[in-house]
Every structure is written in structure tokens, then in C-alpha cells.
Predict the structure.
Amino acid sequence: MPRVEQDLALAVRKAVRKAQQKKELPRFEVPEVPIERPKSVEWGDYATAVCLASARWAKMAPMDIAAQVVKRFPKTDWLAEITVSHPGYINFTLATGWLQEQVEAILAQGERYSDIDLGQGKRVQVEYGSANPTGPLHMGFGRNVVIGDTLANVLDAAGYQVQREYYVNDAGTQMGLFAESLFARYAQALGEPIQLPEDGYQGEYLACWGQEIAEEHGREFLEAPREQALEALKRIGLEEKVLGSIRADCEALGIRYDNWFHETSLYSEGQFETTMTMLRQRELLEAREGAVWFTASTLNDQLKDEVVIRSSGEPGYFASDIAYHYNKLVERGFDWVIDVWGADHQGHVPRMKAMMGALGLDPDRLTLLIYQLVTIKMGGEDIRLSKRAGTMVELGELTREVGADAVRFNFLSRATESQMEFDVDLAKEQSDRNPVYYVQYAHARIASILREAEARGCSPTGGDVTLLAHPAELALIRKMIELSAVIEKAAVNLAPHHLTYYAQELATLFSLFYRDCRVLPRKTGEPGVTTDKTAARLKLVEAVKIILARTLDLMGMSAPERM
């Protein structure tokens, strides 16, 4: 698997040090070596501006520094040319022979060709989803689970050991309110005029669940003591109805979890008491106004103190956060924890970092990935979503309406820090305007070419990849070898949206290749399409199929053989 950018950066550093040893450059600390894509193809495949950044330290003109770096650049068989351009860029052009060899490498290594060892086996947990378990996931929440699941795929491809976790918030006042609401709907299904709580959940899904429970249990919970009935309905509502619905919706989207962690276990298994004791010993808890506060302001005067135990004696939300992350980072020993949160939780980030310091942990071991919320558009109009008010479109309904692949691609199509609009009508459209259709159609077209080749007795066996010299062929190979860099970029920046752009670019380059380079002859003896060239191009087509399918797989999407 090539890592061209990293290899170039390393070679540049070696060249600078060699020139310094030869006293052709003065001694200075070599800065970071950025490798970028030139704006014009005439400047090559890659370029670096490191000589411009070094000029102030070397006290030399960037062009002169670049000349010495090129002079001492290590010999390599994968570069055809190294040039210098004003005002001091070094440009690199990949060797055609090396590019052609990558087709054989892809065919030999398969889907793992582009994987990298960035993580070196480091244990990372990605926690995503984790909606309050008081109803089905609404479609706006799909961005959370799709980002988290795809990021986990990327980190796995980047050499990390990844655990995917869903945190079930099954403690606290919201669950009590959920049980009261479900009880009211259950009773109403049996003809009892019991009203919903004032702040209860209004969604039609509760009426459906209440009817189902009434059919299954009759008047059992009406005749039981109220507290006992509420506890039983909370258990049924959580485990059978809510989590059953969430699991089904996630499964339909191809989302899988390694662990479903229940908040209540933090109290039953002692993590809450352990963390409260630690904070007391470090004099970070203070009793006032009838509650117990985490004195975050003593750690950072820019932070507000937070309630960890309410005046009622119940733990606050932040108390659970503390205990939960102690469990993840200390008891389970993950090297790195990533929580995927919506923008409405942005304000909690500083206190979470303060919490890490309070527990004596490195704050960099916790990353809070914040994504902006989604506007859902149907029939040209925006839809406002509220689980409590019942004005929501369920994620499962969206998946059934437009398909899992379209849901995933669309939710991935923007950077997490960007707001996005999900146009349901466009997601259903089967045309080149729909990017997921465009990308998957490219894979289906490749599969069709290979089927037709087999039917006509054409084979890639013995194909000579050195015949792949057309600009469209070489452009396609250049794009294929970029996938490892895309994986690294997505892993380092926690930005899985780069996969969607890469997939579209690869599909476009394949379309241009298909237009300009005939793979199979229309008839025997067609000019310019020899048996040898057909075999070579079939190898290229097979390689593209592998890389495109791998990209789709990283996004959690299918690679259709027919469309």
C-alpha cells in the first residue's frame, strides 16, 4: 500500500539533512513538510512549499534551498521527475511504470491495498447514537449514527482496534416521564381516561406501544400498585419497544454496535461512588444550595460549577458523564475515546475536558466530535423535528422511503462542522443528480463490463499493465492510489465526509476512461483495441472495482452488481 505523501515528506527531510551534512545548507530545524496537490498538472502530481517556510531559518532564498534539496534527494524508482518552480516549490511527478505496477498490487492485495497502520493497534472506542431511549430515532438523528459508524470503519482501516458503543441513558427523570406517558397511553387503550403528564411525550408511537401492551397484558398494570406498574412499563417500554426499535433501525442502516452500555450499571456496579469519592478527596465537590457541585471553576476560572447531585438526592447528568468516562478510560482502559455529539451539546465540551483533569487523565484521550444539526426537506418544505411533541419522521421510515445507502451517503456528504440539508426527494431520484446513484452506477457498470467480457471469452489473464499509457488510464490509477491518503486524512481529522468526495471523483474518472478507452472491441479487429490491450484494460477495470467497492464499504454502503 503506497503512502506517497508520507514517503515524499520523509525523503524531503532526508535530503535537507544530507545537504546540511555536506554544508550546502546551514543548520536549522527542518519544519513540517507539507505535501499538497499542485493547482496545475504541468507542475506534477505533488508539491511542497517547505523551502519557503525554511527561508527565514536558513537565511537563503527559497529557490536556492530547493535546488540543494533536489540535488540531495534520495534515489527512487517511483518518481519520474523532480523540478523546482518559483518562488521555491519542489514538484514531484510519479513514474508511469510505477503507476502501472499499482494495478497489479491492487489485484494482489484486494480490498486491503489502501489500509494503513496509523493506529498501530491503539484501542479506540467510538460512542455514537446514544439518544435518550424515550422513543424511536428520528431522521435528524441519522447523521449521528452514520458519522459514528463510518468513522469507526475508517479508524479500523487506519490500524486501530475499534469498539463501537451505544450509551443507553436509562436513568434519571426523563425515563420516569417516559414511563408515566406510556402508562397513560396504555390506560387509554383500555378505555381509562388518564391524561398524559404535562411535560409528557406526545408521539403517536407511544399510543401504538400502549395499545400493544394492552393487548398483551390486559388490565394487569392497572390493577397493580402504581409504582410497580410504572417500573414494569418502563422496563417493557425500554427493552422491548424503544431499544427494539432503535436496534431495528440501526440494523436496517447497516449500523452495528459491539456494546450497548446501560447508564444504570454505573450506579449498580459502583462507578458513580468511586468517582464521587475521587472528587471529594481532591476537594472538587462542594455542598451548597441543597445540592452537591463539581467545582470546575477551581480548575479553570472560565468554567461554571456543575451540579452532580441534585437537591432531590438524584445524580445529575454530569455525574453520569464523569462515572461513564471513568469506566471507559480507567476500568476498560481505552487509549482513546471519541464521543459523537450534536451541536446542541457544544457547551458541554469545556466541562468534559475539566472532568478529565479532575480524574487525573490526559484530556487528549477524549475527543468530542461535534456535528451540526440537519434540516430535513420534503416536498420543498422544511420539517421541524421533536420527539416530545411527536412532530417527527422516524429514521426507520426515512430508510424505507429512500434506501439505506442513500441515507448514509447523504448524511456523510458534508463536513461535521457544516450544517446540512437532507433533500428526501433528491435522495430518491435515480439520476446523475443523485450522487449515491452516480457512484453506485459506476460500480454496476464495471460489473457489467466484466460480465460481458466473460461472456465473450475475454480475460485479463496475462494482461500487460505497461500498455496502460492513455492519460485517462493513468489519471484513474492516480486516483485509485489516493484512497490510503483519504483514509489517513479522514482518520486524523475525524472527517469521514472525505470518502464521499473521493467516491464521486473516482466514479467520474472511470466514466471518462470508459468514454475515451474502449475496453472490449465492438467487433473483431477493431482498430486500436488489440487482444493485449483488452486484457490490460480488464485488469484496470477489475482494480477500479476493488477500490470503488472498498470505498463504498467504508461508508457502510453496498456495491451493486446491477442497477
Notes: The chain is about 50% helix and 10% strand.
